[in-house]
Write a structure and sequence with these properties.
There is one protein chain. Helix content is 56%, strand content 9%. The C terminus is likely disordered. The strands form three sheets. An eight-stranded parallel β-barrel has the order 3-4-7-8-9-10-13-14, surrounded by five helices. A hairpin with a 2-residue loop joins strand 1 and strand 2. With 653 residues, it is an alpha/beta fold. Helix 10 crosses helix 12, helix 19 runs antiparallel to helix 22 and helix 19 runs antiparallel to helix 24.
Amino acid sequence: MPDWSYQTIFRPLLFSLPSEIARDFTLHAMGSLSKIPGGSFVIRTLGHMEASPLLESELAGIRLRYPVGLSGSLDPNGVAHRAIAQFGIGFIEIGPVTVEEIERRGQIVRDAANEEILYPDAYANPGLDATVQRMKRKQGHRLPLMLRIRSMPDSTPEEALLEQKRMLEALEPYAAGFYIDVLEERWELDETVQLLEAVVQAAKEMKSGEGGGAKPLFLYIPLDYPLPKLERLLDRLRMEAWAGMVAGEAIRTEEGSAIGRSGKQASADKLRLIRGKCGPEVKLIACGGIHEPRDALDLLQAGASYVQLHSGLVYSGPGLPKRINEAIVYELIRNEAAPAPKSFWTHWGWMCLLGIGMMIGGIIAWLIAATTVVLPYDTQFLGMAKASLSQANPLLLGFMSHDRVTLAGTMISIGILYFQFAYHGLRYGLHWAKSALLMSCIVGFSSFFLYLGYGYFDPLHALAAAILLPMFILSMRGNEDLPPRDRPNTANDRHWRRAQWGQLMMVMLGFSLAVGGLVIAFVGVTRVFVPQDLQYLCATPQMLADINDRLIPLIAHDRAGFGGALFSNAVALLAAALWGINKGQRWLWWTFLIGGFPGFLAGFSIHWAIGYTSFIHLLPAYFAFGFYAAGLLLLYPYMMAKEEVQGGSVDKE
């Protein structure tokens, strides 16, 4: 469920349910989808998280593709980890884990007004033995696992050490690293330091099963651990013994442990203290209060090396990791000079020419369809003059014109999309634009064979395909994926929330046109006519065949061709709606507006001109136009926003 569906449909529905029921339903739904054949592909396609080399890093010898992690408490049983791994997550926390089971007492409470989740007991878990059994099962992903091991409540330092040793030994085969969660306010500083040194020593004595040495340890610092006590602890710690530190996510209250937006300030305070005490080399993971990309950037600025998500995924949506990754990439390149655009003839110019060719072809086809309707090779195929067709059925030429005009409008729309995607996307190495053009062109050129479904070979279409196909091939060569240079949106403001509705409308439009194209193409090569067509023509298929036995194959060629073109157009539009929408993308908003106009103008105008105004027949077009208009209106404030100057930058560690 991408943000455009989560914010608009699923979140309101889920938030009407009790917190725990909503959570379990969501996790099981995502987990079930990821397990069916092709399910993970669907999740990746909808999210389209592009892996950038700029995001890759090494954390204590652990290779990470993304600097964003997932909290263990959000999905304590790992039900949806296979699905969430597709969101742009680089590592997953497992835990907290204690040697014995800790049962949860009370219900999880969601405080939507303050964007918090209240857990009656943040340390509730099934215990060590159950966790080991879970780790033995196939995880469904290859992301590194950070095992967070926690001492039992009310343990003494001596008992805590024994528990830590037991968990380190049992979980070592499954962990990429360990979060050591033992800090207690009630312990004296000397006791805490001695315990931590003993845990480090115990871990060193445990060698990897592959001979790779001890697993890295990260000191887990509860979010509400007092700063003065933490400062004194840092003065005593031997930092070289630790791979890094984790600033936790929960603030304990009388009602339980609160995880939410309010934790951001406490996270920033701890990060600044640790960074100031320990220097720039120590790796820090921030977990609290990250609900929008701007929160992640602020914590990175405060000293974090990585961020870990929990409540932000609940309140912002599954797209948050991708948005954070995109914001980090932008901060990393914002001060670098943009690479010089490639030459027109390198690759993108050929797609521009293809788009121009489609527009010119569509205009010519529209003029012909609105005047002569049939071409000489059409009448030659029929062996029947235009006047004879009109005499046999006065509505026949108008009906054929309506198929051909709508095809012409679709061709113009495709041409506009292709030109814009090439000039503004392919030219600058935008991966989504290349993917959209590749898929749409493959569909479009393949649909040429639909023309042959009834044995009619259209020489004009064949000539156009022969001219345009080399342009497509040349446009796909040597395309290098480059990070976008435009500033991404970093705030969950009202324009962003409104834009989720606009994106939903555009996605619905793309899906509607895709379904419509497939249906029209299928009907074109099978039944040819729908009941409304025959009612308009006041004829049956047999009556049309009696006029000329080649008439239906000619009409089928028009219908199948239009269906294929519409599906090709829908693929390009849908890809842009899914992957291209972002704040300030003015060119894409204009592309939606100008690109959709010829198709709707052609469809509605020709139907009204020939009197084919059946409400049932035009109802899908009315729905599509509604999606189109609503999407443009809702997206306007977001996509047409001017770039704002923001300070700060992120340095990759």
